[in-house]
Amino acid sequence: MAKILKRERLVPNIHVIEVEAPEIVRKCRPGQFVIIMPDKKGERIPLTIADWDKKKGSITSVFMLVGTSTHKLAQLNAGDDVPVFVGPLGKPSEIGKFGTVLVAGGCFGIAAIYPIARALKEKGNKIITLLDVKANYLLYWEEKLRAVSDQFHVSSRDSFYDCKEFIPHTLESLLKKEKKIARIHSIGCTYLMYTCAEATRSHKIKTLVSLNPIMVDGTGMCGACRVTVGGKTKFACVDGPDFDGHLVDWDELFIRRKSYFDDEIHSMCYWEKKNFP
Amino acid sequence: MAENKKDLPPELKERLRAGFNQDWRKELRKSFPMKERMKLKRQKMPERDPDERNQDFFEVNRGLNAKAAIAEAKRCWDCANPQCVKGCPVGIDIPAFVKMIEIGDFDQSVRKIKETNALPAICGRVCPQETQCEVVCNLKKATGTPVAVGNLERFVADYERNKGDVFIPSLPPSTGKKVAIIGSGPAGLTVAGDLALKGHQCTIFEALHVPGGVLWYGIPEFRLPKKILEAEVDYLQKMGVELRTNFVVGLTATLEELKKEGFDAFFVGTGAGLPNFMRIPGENLVGVYSANEYLTRVNLMRAFEFPEYDTPVYLGKNAVVLGGGNVAMDSVRTAKRLGAEESTIVYRRSRVEMPARTEEVHHAEEEGIKFHFLTTPTRFIGDDKGHVKAMECIQMELGEPDDSGRRRPIPIEGSEFIMEADLVVVAIGNSPNPLIPQTTPKLKVGRWGNIEVDWDTMATSMKGVYAGGDIIRGGATVILAMGDARIAANEMDKYLQNHRKK
Fold this sequence. Notes:
The structure holds 2 protein chains of 2 kinds.
Chain A: E1 2-11, E2 14-20, H1 22-27, E3 33-37, E4 45-53, E5 58-64, H2 68-73, E6 81-82, E7 84-89, E8 100-106, H3 109-112, H4 114-122, E9 126-133, H5 142-147, E10 151-156, H6 167-177, E11 181-187, H7 190-201, E12 206-210, E13 226-229, E14 232-235, H8 236-239, E15 242-244, H9 250-257, H10 261-275
Parallel strand pairs in A: 8-9, 8-11, 9-10, 11-12
Antiparallel strand pairs in A: 1-2, 1-6, 2-5, 3-4, 3-7, 4-5, 12-15, 13-14
Helix pairs in contact in A: 6-7
Chain B: H1 10-20, H2 23-31, H3 34-39, H4 50-53, H5 66-74, H6 83-87, H7 94-102, H8 106-114, H9 120-126, H10 138-143, H11 149-163, E1 178-182, H12 186-197, E2 201-205, H13 214-217, H14 226-238, E3 242-244, H15 255-260, E4 265-268, E5 274-275, E6 288-290, H16 291-300, E7 318-322, H17 326-337, E8 342-346, H18 358-366, E9 370-372, E10 375-382, E11 388-401, E12 407-411, E13 417-420, E14 423-426, E15 430-431, H19 435-439, E16 465-467, H20 470-473, H21 478-498
Parallel strand pairs in B: 1-2, 1-4, 2-3, 4-16, 6-14, 7-8, 7-14, 8-9
Antiparallel strand pairs in B: 5-15, 10-11, 11-12, 11-13
Helix pairs in contact in B: 5-7, 7-8, 7-11, 8-11, 9-11, 12-21, 16-17
């Protein structure tokens, strides 16, 4: 059982949730995740840790409305309890002094990339932040991310920000301008991470991606989250979630991500009919 | 099992002898001679009709009633040198509890079991009695059919629980010593029960949201109803055992950090939570599961009640389960219950080498499960959507026995064939969970990732840290885990008595 301290809609479709978890705060590091269950009948959902408050003993995560369990989560409010909030899970991201690091994020990944950017900045790296949104009103946490960035770019299809194109094109032009990028860290939907990894492949710049396959227990017990990296099967929950984007078998990940597509629709219809007749 | 051949500890021998010499036992033996007892037939465990039960998740065995239990208990000779106790990894005083059933004193009977086993309703259901207490029963040697010890254990445990008045033993004054138990599976629960009886404060840490480990996520409802597990855990909590779910030792806090928080001793019972795969092409196709994932979705996340519960699972028309152990039987019977038209076991050796309990194989056959022996897949074949649709298999023949004593399967060249399968569950075993070994560098680990222990004491390479169950064995059984736990708890008690707080 864990208490929700805050749950708000950030932008349409994306919510922030802050949960009391003093034990997790003591241990968590950038790149790790938690597993949350909205209620006893819900799924175990992995969420990347987006921020934490040592004094309050709280963990903040951001989630997108996808299936039944995330919709249930969005119905909860400050003061409500969730039956499961466990972590920190997975290996932390590698934080070192690399020089210039480009961090790329989209949808929930805008928040998920934040603690990594912050930690890399604190280590003395030059941070180029590149975010991707479909339209200007979908951007959030701009101030937070600007505060830890040396350069700040947003790819937005409505031309509201400096770049208009989808993130890999913007990334390409940035790579041409900035010759000294030592590595790239990308979090977002599978497609965003895949396109980022493809954009950097010919430049041979190390590109880390935070993979998001379907998980169940999150501690390496079930093997639901297996991904092929460099020809070997890895469990994203314990061997990752960060992997070298140039080695990931993306086709397999896309297929496995969609494993339960029909069931998810069935589940949503059932839940909606039951709760909003 | 080599460890079962050991002589009984002197303390247990003495207790057995004292019980044997009680007047009421003497009279009971006299009142009904051995020759007469031999003539009695073993009471059959009532089971639900196979064609009805393979449609739902309710329990298969119904349990003996009081009359049948007493009739079964009458068959027991109350031997002077009871072999059954030697066969029991946790040393239950079997003749004593059976004779108490014979005189109708069910309350005392269950208390007798609970002196050495805090989880009788579970053990009565999932222990392989036929290879432990019942196989060495003297009556079996004489008549071929042993006393149904497991069914009797289950009967008294169920009797007490159904009565709603569970006896909580009086506890000694607190020793002030704190014990951290990592993992709430059968080993962890046993250590907690034993050490609570000695007055130590036990805290169980569990990574998942419910306690029970494999008893919850692995063993299906139709073999071990979860309300029974909940009742046995509730019993431990009433004995003062503290339970902390959603706590992953190694990640939420390391063992060393818990030590600093004031725990005096540790028991690591984190099980074999690392699924083995076949390592053949196509294994990551959609529809190919590890048994751990398949059973966790169904048992823990209750996918059999989808969409009332949010977690889905593939149903499959042609379900194939790879393996011949109890986990394979649980998986294949689950697939049948979830509506598979064909539910098949594919096993690389033959029937006699299957490690599953005879009862489980028998139940599976009754329920319409098919068996394909001497066969192993060589690759999985997917459809255009990346979903498994078939397997290429090869036939095997048996060669010389290997390290396990079973005959080694050898592929027959050119015998490849295609088998349809749109749901595949890989149930070929598990390896020890790496979380504790990885985050506790001082702990000595063996070549299979198992924590190394002194087998006489279950002590690890770290002072005050003990381990038992599948984390030291690889994949074994519930009762062997409990046997390790019993040894560890005794040693931990000794350790704690001599242990001074810094």
